[in-house]
């Protein structure tokens, strides 16, 4: 079962969301450098949205060197690496993103997704929990933490309140309603979850 698919490595989004496309803060180096960096940032967004992964990677890597304080640059690079199956590189980039912008719940959520892809479930749990600590209304983080407990840690009892929380934050999601009902049934019966196809994390 999946809750979203990304075939073209959309910036910051397995679930169809776009990257951090607002104006970046002026970096050290003055107004001209800030404007130049902003233009490059927009070029990176355009390339990644269009599926030009190699071009986007070159732009993000260059900006990461000149503007290491910009969390969105590292985050988009991390998502790009993950979509190409480069999970260690994805984790490394997203770890830099949360260092640069520790209050950004979306960066912590994306880091959790990459940890999960890398098989680091304990770290994924910590990252999702930090995302929820930064933004208690993050339906994506609640859903992803629920998926982690449900599918990867085989703990339906812990998954259920997280699915319900995500459903409250995103009412009307038919897939999520089915998952919650399924987990509610299993948790109530105290049964061991049966294997299910991987659920796709949300961004």
Question: How do the strands and helices of this protein lay out in sequence?
Answer:
Elements (H helix, E strand, L loop, with lengths): L30 H19 L3 H14 L4 H13 L3 H14 L4 H13 L3 H14 L4 H14 L3 H14 L4 H16 L14
Q: Briefly note the structural class of the backbone.
A: mainly alpha
Task: Indicate the overall shape.
Answer: elongated
Number of helices: 9
Poorly predicted runs: 1-33, 191-198
Question: Number of DSSP strands?
Answer: 0
- Rg over CA atoms, rounded to whole Å, is 18 Å
Helix percentage:
55-70%
- Share in β-strands: under 5%
Q: Distance between the terminal alpha carbons, to the nearest Å?
A: 16 Å
Give a written overview of the molecule:
The protein is an all-alpha fold and 203 residues long. Helix content is 65%, strand content 0%. The chain is built from nine helices and no strands. Helix 1 runs antiparallel to helix 2 (53-66) and helix 4 runs antiparallel to helix 5. Residues 1-33 and 191-198 have low confidence and may be disordered.
